[in-house]
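Can't attach files on this board, so I'm pasting raw text. These are the components:
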Amino acid sequence: MIRLAGVEKVYRTDRIETVALSQIDLEVAAGDFVAVMGPSGCGKSTLLNLIGLLDAPTKGTVELAGKPVASYRDRDVSRLRNETIGFVFQTFHLIPDLRVLDNVELPLLYRKMSGAERRARATRALERVGLASRLQHFPSQLSGGQQQRVAIARAIAGEPRILLADEPTGNLDSQMGDEVMGLIEDLNQKDGVTVVMVTHDPRQAEKAHRTIRIFDGRQVAC
Amino acid sequence: MLRSHLRLALAVLKRRKVFTAISLFGIALTLLVLIVAGALLDNVFGAFPPEVHHDRTLLVFNVRMSGKDAQSTSPAGFGLLDLYARDLPGVERLAITSTMREAFSYQGGRKQRLYLKRTDAEFWRVLQFPFVEGAPFAEAEVDSGARVAVINRTMRRTFFGDGPALGRDLEVDGLTYRVMGVVEDVPMMRAVPFADVWVPHSSGRDQAYRSDLQGEFWGLLLARSAADFPGIQSEFRSRMQRIDLSAYPEFERLHATPETLLASTSRMIFDAHDDPESRPDRLLGVFGLLALLFLALPTINLVNLSISRILERASEIGVRKAFGAPATSLVGQFVLENVVLTLLGGVLSLLAAPLVLAAINQSGVLPYAQLALNLRTFALGLGLAVFFGVLSGAYPAWRLARLHPVVALKGAAR
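---
Top answer:
Structure tokens for the assembled complex are below.
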């Protein structure tokens, strides 16, 4: 499903060159659940951004569903992201001016789909995360755990094959974190969604099928 | 998608009340000024009674005579129009009117300043004045030099109050005219028909004007259709070249062109009296340029406000990009938000415009002004609002749509 070969990511400014990732080779099969661990600033999020096509590698290739994406135009990358990948962020990144239902509909806005179908799908996703009664609420009216569940609903509304989660429980207490992890596990086990999750928490990483460790931009163990 | 973007646009405006208020005030004020300017131009150049045949009327305003060492530009002489503008192919009627002249009446021992025009009888057929009382003077009165007058409603009230006006005497510049008609007031900005009092051109003491090539008259050529304009202009110019200038040894050439009001005005403003081409586009260009310059400042201001407003939503841009929003869609979203804002400003300006126009009409700054928010002005206002919105939204939207998604997600777009 996901294949990275010889990937390197270097950030350059006028004076400084920072190697964020180097010699990353990674294969994630369909239905796999991979945790990415490592100290702060080691390149975990950069790795996730490369897998999620939010950033391009300086060297090496990224393949998604068997297709190398380097030659894709911006529009094609956008479509691939929209149809294949769902994102969950540590800070939720919900749009404060939109109601919960509108937030969850967001990925579907960029597909050819009627408004009714969009609403039906978003409602189903919210039912799945147990927030069917909060459709018309604004994010600020929800707790942190509920906001992250909305973010998960948004990530799965478009039924992506890959879920990329960047410290999804990082801003939650342990009970809420467990609830969110339960949802992610459920998506992986019942729906076969491939999950790549960045986390600092070994307890959450244990729930993954395997763990990759990154240190100073290098993959140190699988 | 459109509904979702609209909902978001309104929500953002509601949340940022101070920004919205400042933006709306700037937009509404700018558009209001442009709408008032549009109403003024419409009042000058639009087709309103009595100028109902604007689309097929050509005007001869100025005549330029030039020689090696001399040059003279002035309104046409009665003789030039009378002798050389009659029976032009494609012309249905020729009307001759003097330019407006300030005159005084001491009727009832009270000094009254007024504007007088001397016309022929065709003037009342080419222009369709709404008569309140009586009728216009005809060929019989003009041919006999009868001292008769048509006056406007305001002069009627000034001189005769509520009493009868028709058949009454009116003293102007020492001559006494018999009132035979009363018409509705015509705004002073309508240069061709405007006056307070209209009298036959022949009713003065001096008849020497009849052979002048230059003088104080304008010709109004009512064509059968606008398609006849080129033929009329060509024949008129050729007649001008045949005029014998031997009585004017200092001049070798004479230029005069029948043109639309817009083209004539353009020629006067650019002092291009001997230009063989009609160039109304030059005047339109100036109006357009002035409008653009006037729009430039508030647009730049709104661009800056928009950029800072949208940059605050960098993480939203990042999320949208992460979930597959193409750059074009983001540009569309933010342009739409700006258009919504400017349309709201447009609505405010359209609500305020009738009040401002009514205040100008009542102030007397522009005599007999009849500025109104008509369909044309309304369309101008809405068009400007959309143009303004797209103009001020496109650049920030384009800039922000190009944000790197990772940078945007960090909210560090600046």
